[in-house]
């Protein structure tokens, strides 16, 4: 091959490859946000800065759901199914994590009071029929004048990490075409104060997690009551409580996905074939990058605060940031946050574009972001010294809030289990 031909050949292959990447429309891979993404980011940031932050300390101390803030969010269209739909509509998948990062940058407790509903919505969206989505998702949010919240109830006193150990039962009553639920749910965000509860229950305990199904408990259903409200280390503006289900009867139509689909799935499992879906696990898989983005919001808030403080605070006649020990810590915090965000964006993009999480990339994103949030907020306290340890400064609240991100939606250990199994194919224990 002549040099010219070789060059021409190279050009051709570049062009062919560029069919996927570059070309008339420009490069496909970009980290530059489009105008819609920037607009939503700035809009949520404005709300976080103007409404959420000023209220953060008060609601953390009160340990109550900040209904007035939820109402404000609903009034401007930030809390509601249209907003969530708008975030989700972005086919790059990035808008949902971007919006979450901004809101939780404002405050994580209030952020969770606003976003807690979305876990129940994700379950309905992931497993419901179109009719069920149309009926229940709007009810999860209520209206701007009268907003409501929803709860997703999977965990139980003896079934946290071990989701398969769920004991809450759902029995079908053919005579009335109703499901009867019995059991106790633990640590449910919005549990008992929600209008709509989505409950994971077992219809066949022998099948472990493959015998689970998700049910909607409509507002005001008898036999669905709040148990003890949990007093927490952080995220205190978000309500967490047990939920008791005592002969709780719901219409047959409240089984997400419908009975026919469930019966088909159970039959497949009993025949030894693989089940395509496991109710709780599906919800978690879809929501992990979003949860990671919330952790990044907290970490970024602590980073920004401690950076500004380090430039201001004088000791030994100079700003403390002039010491490498402080400056390098801040450099590491910034780098870790950016690295975590890239993992979150990758997983969100993969989820939205239907790529298979071959290496548990969703779990990776949540694991990294959660650990970065805990570490960064702890370092931020150190940078603020004594002030960092007091309630006069926000970084101790951020640290308390961050800690939950290595626990809920799968602990860090469970994420490592999921990742190690995915990369090795070995049933690591
Ligand atoms: C504020 C808050 C909000 C929550 N919101 C919700 C909600 O809305 N809905 C819901 O369903 N649940 C919710 N949860 C529950 C949460 O998901 C669980 O707490 C979590 O899954 C861990 O379960 P556990 O607490 O029972 O811990 P355990 O499972 O008892 O774990 C205890 C420790 O053992 C480790 N461990 C367990 N198994 C293994 C293993 N195989 N290998 C290595 N280490 C292991 C864990 O990593 C952890 O460190 C919430 C919890 C909190 C605190």
In helices, the fraction of residues equals 40-55%
SS-based class: alpha+beta
Q: Averaging pLDDT over every residue, what do you get? A: 92
The main pleated sheet reads as: 4 strands, antiparallel
Order of helices and strands: HHHHHHHHEEEEEEEHHEEHHHH
How would you summarize this macromolecular structure in one to three sentences?
With 429 residues, this protein is of the alpha+beta class. 53% of the residues lie in helices and 13% in strands.
Helix-strand layout with pairing:
Elements: H1 3-18, H2 35-62, H3 67-75, H4 81-89, H5 95-106, H6 108-115, H7 117-127, H8 130-141, E1 150-153, E2 169-173, E3 178-189, E4 196-202, E5 212-217, E6 224-229, E7 240-251, H9 259-270, H10 279-312, E8 314-315, E9 318-319, H11 324-352, H12 361-384, H13 395-403, H14 412-424
Helix pairs in contact: 2-5, 2-6, 5-6, 5-10, 7-8, 7-10, 10-11, 10-12, 10-13, 11-12, 12-13, 12-14
The chain binds flavin-adenine dinucleotide.
């Amino acid at each position: 091959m002549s040099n010219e031909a070789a060059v021409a050949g190279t050009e051709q292959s570049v062009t062919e490859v560029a069919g996927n990447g570059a070309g008339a429309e420009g490069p496909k891979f970009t980290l530059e946000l489009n105008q819609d993404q920037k607009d939503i980011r700035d809009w949520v940031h404005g709300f976080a800065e103007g409404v959420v932050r000023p209220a953060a300390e008060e609601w953390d101390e009160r340990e109550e759901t900040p209904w007035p803030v939820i109402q404000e969010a609903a009034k401007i269209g930030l809390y509601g199914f249209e907003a969530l739909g708008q975030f989700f509509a972005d086919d790059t998948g990035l808008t949902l994590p971007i919006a979450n990062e901004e809101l939780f940058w404002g405050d994580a407790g209030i952020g969770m009071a606003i976003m807690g509903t979305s876990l129940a919505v994700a379950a309905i969206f992931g497993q419901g029929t179109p009719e069920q989505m149309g009926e229940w998702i709007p009810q999860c949010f209520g209206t701007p004048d009268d907003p409501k919240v929803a709860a997703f109830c999977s965990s139980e006193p003896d079934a946290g990490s071990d989701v398969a150990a769920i004991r809450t039962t759902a029995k079908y009553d053919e005579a009335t075409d109703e499901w009867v639920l019995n059991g106790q749910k633990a640590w449910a965000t919005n549990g008992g104060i929600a209008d709509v509860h989505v409950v994971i229950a077992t219809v066949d305990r022998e099948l472990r997690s493959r015998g689970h199904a998700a049910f909607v408990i409509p507002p005001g259903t008898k036999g669905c009551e709040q148990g003890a409200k949990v007093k927490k280390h952080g995220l205190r503006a978000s309500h967490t409580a047990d939920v008791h289900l005592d002969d709780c009867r719901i219409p047959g139509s409240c089984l997400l996905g419908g009975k026919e689909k469930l019966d088909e799935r159970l039959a497949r499992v009993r025949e030894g074939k693989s089940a395509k879906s496991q109710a709780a696990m599906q919800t978690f898989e879809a929501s992990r990058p979003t949860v990671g983005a919330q952790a990044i919001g907290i970490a970024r808030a602590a980073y920004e605060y401690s950076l500004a403080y380090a430039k201001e605070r004088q000791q030994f006649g100079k700003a403390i940031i002039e010491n490498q020990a402080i400056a390098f810590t801040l450099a590491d915090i910034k780098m870790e946050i950016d690295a975590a965000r890239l993992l979150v964006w990758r997983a969100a993009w993969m989820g939205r574009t239907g790529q298979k999480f071959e290496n548990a990339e969703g779990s990776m994103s949540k694991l990294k972001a959660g650990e970065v949030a805990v570490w960064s907020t702890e370092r931020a306290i150190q940078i603020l010294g004594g002030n960092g340890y007091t309630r006069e400064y926000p970084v101790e609240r951020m640290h308390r809030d961050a800690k939950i991100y290595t626990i809920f939606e799968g602990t860090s250990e469970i994420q490592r289990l999921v990742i190690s199994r995915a990369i090795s194919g070995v049933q690591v224990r």
